[in-house]
Structures are given as structure tokens and as C-alpha cells.
């Protein structure tokens, strides 16, 4: 459906065209006409499918620019979302004169907000706490409000905000229109919502899955200690333009940011213990690409819309299934492609099963990339850049420098190229030191090798060749590089190059001998 078929203000049609919207999304096509009729609705549609405009457009249709009272109020669960929704509604209102939209949220100078509110604002987009604050101070009045929107309604009506929402809605005239939007809408929440709405129509853009099709979802079985290393490898291999890494605690966010920055990544944290100024700085940095990696708690899980987020990582699996939907929904927006990678530790596999059941999607297991994979991806990128440079630049003076060297010294141009490659691949993570030596200790292995202990299980009569083959097959490490296998009555040891040891351990869960899993651990623990 085209926007001009909706019977909306021509100025809004102009604005959406300028915003690059060609057609309405399904939720917009279905919700906008009903909301324009003045009916209460509950709108549920997948993440990134344009719910903001679905309420923003009919909201603007209702505003009388000549009337300087607050006429519409939108409540959002987080500050960042309030700012973003206000921006989107301002863009929609770009050609409508005399409409003022402001976000009001905690942590921002309240005196400034009061001044703006006094200057005649028709649309307030706020977080419940700060809105209540203004109500108490009587710096905002809602007696001319005809429309209330609860964006991310289920989240806000969840225990945390319920009382605040109730208090706020009591201040809004009873004849108001009340609309609720979210990508998830659990039944208990809809029951609560019935108290605030009148004869609400449920508009659910039904799809089998709750998550968007264009997000590919994978998981990695990891050990808690190896999460950061695995994350780094994935970042190096997939090289996302922007990515968001979700952690379950503020402490974990801080730790991971320090770790990633130490490894040379442009990462910043976002969580509720930070000062608002800092939160704004981080969010702006991420929106304009100064920060590539946003490490966040669930404050960034709902509604946040940033172009070019290619990958969402669940560094920790979320506690609630709904949060999985919202977190991964930060990628794959407005029809783009996205990747969602979840880290799963031990028994969390069960949680992952629940998430899959809830979302009605499959999350597929993926092996952890080896350092070899990382190295070859890095080399590919370097070769690509070199190719571009060779094609487009005059390198003759450099060529003669190399020729001179080769004539004077005892090595070839190939040696020089190889040394250069090694040098350029050493940026960011240091491949050789990434392995954490002490985990393997001194186990009397040969120089450069570490000993691993393998438990093949008693009943299995595995031959050394089977074990070697299985490990080589799963890790991609050439069988030649894996050293001796020593089989004793009860114990089996294998020696592997130190730099591959971690890979072998991580691959363990996938290494099967005669269909049965085996157990591998550092030999110094025995
Ligand atoms: N009709 C449209 N055509 C193209 N892009 C659109 C259209 N409507 C909205 N968009 C863009 O799609 C992106 C996602 O929209 P929006 O943030 O409203 O999604 P949402 O459904 O609210 O998602 P979430 O559940 O994550 O809050 C925004 O960048 C928005 O500008
Ligand atoms: Mg939204």
C-alpha cells in the first residue's frame, strides 16, 4: 500500500517520501486507518517493522497546531528510546508547521525541560518516571490530551512501571484514545491493558515466528572463560559494521568493554548506572559509527533503531524469552539482513530450547572459529586491500626498494612479502598470546606443544588413528601438526601445538569417536 492511499495529510506523505519509505509496512497499513478512526488498539508486529510511524502518523493527524496544550503523550521504557521516538515523529512532522515535539526523560536538566514545556508543546514523549516528576511539579498538564501511546507496552506494564503508568493515565481525560504497541504481547499483559483501554481492537500482524525471517540465528557452545576470546574471533571473522553485545549485568558490561578495548576494538558500554550525559555520548557515538561495538544491558534491547547493526550477540543468554526477541531485533530492521549469535554455557542449552519454542524459530549450532579461520580471514582482507592498492597506485619506487634489498641480502621477495603479512596480521589480537599459557602449564611435552588428556570412555576401543582423525576433522588442524598420541590402559594423551590447544578443547563437545562424545582436558589437571 502507498502512503497516499491512507488518506493522511499530504505533508506527512511528503515527509515519509523524504525518509525513503516507499510503501507502508503491514502493521502501518492495518493500524493507521483504525487509529485514525479514533479507536483504541493493541498493535503487535515484529521488531523493526515500523511500529513508530504506525502510531506516529495518526498521532500527528490529531494535533491541532494552533492549540498550544499538550495533546498527545507517548510513554517509552527507556530514555534512549524516548529520544529516538521524538526524532522519528519530528521527521514525520517536518512539513507541518507549528507542531512541537519534545522528549522528557530522567537525567536531563529539568529546568531546561520545564522551559520547553512552557513554550507550548503539543507532543510529549517521555519515560514514566520523569513524566510523573513533571506532573508532581505541575510543570506539565495532560487535561487536553486526546491520545496516549504506550510504546513497548508489555515491558512498561510489567511490574516495574505499572504504578507509574496508572498514575499518569489517571491525569489524562477519560475520553482519550489509548494505543499500545510492542513486538511481544503476553496474554497477562493484554488482560491488564483492558483496564486502560475501551473496546480495544487487537491488530496482530500474524507470522508464524515472533522473530524476523531475515535474521539468521546461531549459537555457540562456549566455556565461561572463553567467551571474550570467542567474541573477538567472531568480530574478526564477520567484521560487522556495527554490532551490539548484550550482557545480563552492568558489571559484565564494564568488564567486557575493558577487555575489548584492551584488544583494540572500538567498544563502549551502555547501562543504567551511567550518567545520562555519558549515555547520550555513547549512543551518539554508536549512531554515527565512532563506536563499532555497543556492549549493553537490556536498556538497549527495546525499540532502539540504528542502521547498519549487522550482528547482535547474546554474550549472556537473556533471562526472559521476550528479551531474546527484542535483543536480536536490533538487527535485521526494515527488511535488512542480520545475524544473531548467542553464547551458550553448559546447561543453558535448555534455556535455548525454551527460547526456540517461544519464538517458533530454529537457532542453529555453529562451531567456534579456530585461530586458523581468523588468520585466513585477516589474510584475505589484507590481500584484498593489497589488490586494490596494486590496481590503483604507482608502486614503482617501492618495487625498486625491494629489488635493492633482495640484491643485497640473502632472501627473496617472497620472504619479504611473508614477513610483511605476518606483521600486518598482528594488529588487534595477538594470535600467539591469545591462548593463556598457564591453563596448560608444563606437562613435559615437547617444545611448543602441550599435553591434553583424553577420556575415550571405557567400553570404546578407539585406535590412535581414530582419535587423531576425529580431532583433525573437527578442528581443521592438520593431522600432521598434532603430535604423538600415547595410549595407556586408562589414560590417553595427545600432544598438540600450544596455539591449537584451546581450539581442541573447545571443539571437544563436537569430537565424536564411533558416535560417542569424548572428554578432553589439560593434562596438568590430572
Ligand atoms: N514504510 C516503511 N518503509 C521503509 N522503512 C520504514 C517504514 N516504516 C518505518 N521504517 C523504518 O524502519 C525502521 C524500524 O522502524 P521502527 O523503529 O518503527 O520499528 P518497530 O516496529 O518499532 O521495532 P521495535 O519492535 O524494535 O521497536 C526505522 O528506521 C524506520 O524509519
Ligand atoms: Mg518500536
UniProtKB/TrEMBL annotation:
<dbReference type="Pfam" id="PF03880">
    <property type="entry name" value="DbpA"/>
</dbReference>
<dbReference type="InterPro" id="IPR001650">
    <property type="entry name" value="Helicase_C-like"/>
</dbReference>
<feature type="short sequence motif" description="Q motif">
    <location>
        <begin position="1"/>
        <end position="29"/>
    </location>
</feature>
<dbReference type="InterPro" id="IPR011545">
    <property type="entry name" value="DEAD/DEAH_box_helicase_dom"/>
</dbReference>
<dbReference type="InterPro" id="IPR057325">
    <property type="entry name" value="DeaD_dimer"/>
</dbReference>
<comment type="similarity">
    <text>Belongs to the DEAD box helicase family.</text>
</comment>
<keyword id="KW-0346">Stress response</keyword>
<keyword id="KW-0378">Hydrolase</keyword>
<dbReference type="InterPro" id="IPR027417">
    <property type="entry name" value="P-loop_NTPase"/>
</dbReference>
<dbReference type="GO" id="GO:0005524">
    <property type="term" value="F:ATP binding"/>
</dbReference>
<dbReference type="InterPro" id="IPR014001">
    <property type="entry name" value="Helicase_ATP-bd"/>
</dbReference>
<keyword id="KW-0547">Nucleotide-binding</keyword>
<protein>
    <recommendedName>
        <fullName>ATP-dependent RNA helicase CshA</fullName>
        <ecNumber>3.6.4.13</ecNumber>
    </recommendedName>
</protein>
<dbReference type="GO" id="GO:0009409">
    <property type="term" value="P:response to cold"/>
</dbReference>
<dbReference type="InterPro" id="IPR012677">
    <property type="entry name" value="Nucleotide-bd_a/b_plait_sf"/>
</dbReference>
<dbReference type="GO" id="GO:0005829">
    <property type="term" value="C:cytosol"/>
</dbReference>
<dbReference type="Pfam" id="PF00270">
    <property type="entry name" value="DEAD"/>
</dbReference>
<dbReference type="Pfam" id="PF00271">
    <property type="entry name" value="Helicase_C"/>
</dbReference>
<keyword id="KW-0067">ATP-binding</keyword>
<keyword id="KW-0347">Helicase</keyword>
<dbReference type="GO" id="GO:0005840">
    <property type="term" value="C:ribosome"/>
</dbReference>
<keyword id="KW-0963">Cytoplasm</keyword>
<dbReference type="Pfam" id="PF25399">
    <property type="entry name" value="DeaD_dimer"/>
</dbReference>
<dbReference type="InterPro" id="IPR044742">
    <property type="entry name" value="DEAD/DEAH_RhlB"/>
</dbReference>
<dbReference type="GO" id="GO:0033592">
    <property type="term" value="F:RNA strand annealing activity"/>
</dbReference>
<dbReference type="GO" id="GO:0016787">
    <property type="term" value="F:hydrolase activity"/>
</dbReference>
<feature type="domain" description="DEAD-box RNA helicase Q">
    <location>
        <begin position="1"/>
        <end position="29"/>
    </location>
</feature>
<dbReference type="InterPro" id="IPR000629">
    <property type="entry name" value="RNA-helicase_DEAD-box_CS"/>
</dbReference>
<dbReference type="InterPro" id="IPR014014">
    <property type="entry name" value="RNA_helicase_DEAD_Q_motif"/>
</dbReference>
<feature type="domain" description="Helicase C-terminal">
    <location>
        <begin position="214"/>
        <end position="375"/>
    </location>
</feature>
<feature type="domain" description="Helicase ATP-binding">
    <location>
        <begin position="32"/>
        <end position="203"/>
    </location>
</feature>
<dbReference type="InterPro" id="IPR050547">
    <property type="entry name" value="DEAD_box_RNA_helicases"/>
</dbReference>
<dbReference type="GO" id="GO:0003724">
    <property type="term" value="F:RNA helicase activity"/>
</dbReference>
<dbReference type="InterPro" id="IPR005580">
    <property type="entry name" value="DbpA/CsdA_RNA-bd_dom"/>
</dbReference>
